[in-house]
Write a structure and sequence with these properties.
It is built from eleven helices and 13 strands. The relative contact order is 0.19. The protein is about 40% helix and about 25% strand. The chain has two domains: about 190 residues, Ribosomal Protein S5, domain 2 (2-Layer Sandwich), CATH 3.30.230.10; about 140 residues, GHMP kinase, C-terminal domain (Alpha-Beta Plaits), CATH 3.30.70.890. The protein has about 325 residues and is α+β, with helices and mostly antiparallel strands. Strands 1, 2, 3, 4, 5, 6, 7, 12 and 13 form a nine-stranded mixed sheet that branches. A hairpin with a 7-residue loop joins strand 9 and strand 10.
Length: about 325
Amino acid sequence: MIISKTPFRISFFGGGSDYPEWYRENGGCVVSTTIDKYCFISLRNLPNFFEHNYRIVYSLIENVKNIRDINHPSVREVLTWKKINIGLEIHHDGDLPARSGLGSSSAFTVGLLNALEAYEGKIISKKKLATDAINIEQNIIKEKVGSQDQIACSYGGFNKITFNYDNSFSVDPIILLKNRSSELNKNLMLFFTGKTRIAAEIAADKINNIKNKSKELFEIMKMVDNCINIIQTKNSNLDEIGYLLDQTWKIKKSLSSKVSNNFIDDIYDLAKNNGALGGKLLGAGGGGFILFYVPLEKQKNIIKALNKLTYVPFKFENEGSSIVLYEPNGL
């Protein structure tokens, strides 16, 4: 039995510049962190006395003989790409709902790739893990997705990720004093709107608008270094992050009419009226999780005002995707 553990991520600034259609011409950068909520993938050999060769358990259960008959696109294409020729049972368990803006799809792909490498007795580098996941999602499955989630989930931690014209990327950890990191973490509140969405559909609309939104995307990219400067300057007021989130949310909404809706706008306005300095819907938009920057003395007001939503406390994490159980004799 092998189990991989892959964190979900929160993207603060720069989202949209991680689409290949943008950064191949303009470069791109984002700042994000992973959190202590995870995607777990367990994998074991399936003995040949079953009628099926592959058992995939997620929100559905699939029992099939051939890999190409698997409906789950990531499982089907990863197993095909890896040229798997033995029976496998694969289980997925997530701490938070899928399709909710926390990079869950990429966390799944990263976690599955990591588990399969461990199955083969290999240790894969974080860079290759991220690169392989990007290739699977963008070039093989052909999903309209960016490149930040695969990298964030693979590496873990609070990072600036830079995307280069030649498709390469670099990951620069953002070093914070312990009390500074803790203070920032305590001022962030995460809520689930109760609505999930297909991120690729919203992303496709954003990509179609890219050529007309250059000014907005360059502005979003500038906020990455603004954010880093605020949080790394010892005596700066962290509340500036809240105001910066408010600015990036306004720009993000302008990238596509599908990013927000009346339901989301009402939540955002209610939060600001009760003490939030700013925030943003995570991921492509349309639903999922919404993040707010709220000074500690206002947080009770926010919880009361948003009592119809699910509040999810979280902590930053630094490990990235890892193998938490490796029992080769059980395969």
